[in-house]
Design goal:
It catalyses: 1-(5-phospho-beta-D-ribosyl)-ATP + diphosphate = 5-phospho-alpha-D-ribose 1-diphosphate + ATP. With about 300 residues, this protein is of the alpha+beta class. It contains ten helices and 16 strands. It folds into three domains: about 15-110 and about 200-230, Periplasmic binding protein-like II (D-Maltodextrin-Binding Protein, domain 2); about 110-195, Periplasmic binding protein-like II (D-Maltodextrin-Binding Protein, domain 2); about 235-295, Alpha-Beta Plaits, CATH 3.30.70. Strand 8 (about 130-135), helix 5 (about 140-150) and strand 9 (about 155) form a beta-alpha-beta unit. The chain binds phosphoribosyl ATP and zinc ion (ZN).
Length: about 300
Amino acid sequence: MSASTTAPARDRLRIAIQKSGRLADPARSLLAACGLSWRQSRDKLFCFGESLPVDLLLVRDDDIPGLIADGVCDLGVVGLNELDEQAKARRQIGLADAYQPLRGLGFGSCRLMIAVPEEWDWQGVQMLQGKRIATSYPAILAAWLKEKGVDAQVVELSGSVEIAPKLGTAELICDLVSSGATLAANQLKPVETLLESEAVLAGPVNELDDARAGLMAMLLRRLDGLSKTQDQKLLMFSAAEESVDALARLLPDAEPLLRLPGAGGAVRLQTMCNGALSWQRLEELERAGAQGLMVLAVEKSLV
Ligand code: PRT
Ligand code: ZN
């Protein structure tokens, strides 16, 4: 049953993040950039929200989907791999969906991949038929094998999956890969991608119906404001009136130039650009008559 139908009305939002590990620091920094701050409790598992009624629970990443499903937490920052695994495992035993990814957060990127011994001449998924595959993601792997029509044995391991072929517990593995160094160190090579993963903000499938709904909407809006401005730069310069058209032609990917009155007959101009503005590009603008060029990073926006 969902939290919204069982739990009493609450006026503080609770977010679960990883206590320590790859996602812990970036999750905390992102939430802080959304304007949240906390008073650290002595046991450090619960951080009381100071700037807003938004508290943090510091837990193992594996526990985050379950905490949302049980209504203990309203939101969580967790790898899509973990969320998807637990969602599929629930479905396999007939439980209804209890959480969903709300936003991709742009960190913790990795891929869930099939990796085989380097000496295998990879011919395609039919090579998996009848093999034993070691993984910590049995539900995702089972669903993928079914979709591919391959009958293979899933060997569930909670860690050190990459040494399973050497130990003889499986012929190949299905594990997370980021740089690929771990696979290479174990004489394995990646051959198939099951999932492209990143950290996500996960929330319940049912909407909240008390004060937390407003807090959640505000947090999502701030997150969107941050991700929208991530690559945006404000470009400012001044120029003589007769140079403005030529300068605008040099900025085809920017928003239309905004003109402001400048001193001594010059026009002050500004525009938003996406992505990097190289030194070369600024020098080109300068040769075309731009003066006092300034590039400013955009920190926040509410749109
Ligand atoms: O204690 P807790 O249970 O909270 O932490 P954990 O040990 O389960 O998780 P942690 O901190 O290792 O990972 C948290 C999340 O980070 C994962 O669920 C993924 O969403 C994400 N992530 C991103 C990764 C990786 N990259 C990653 N490379 N998680 C694990 N790895 C491991 C992978 O399993 C393999 O052992 O790193 C190794 C491969 O790395 P490369 O760079 O050698 O390819
Ligand atoms: Zn974990």
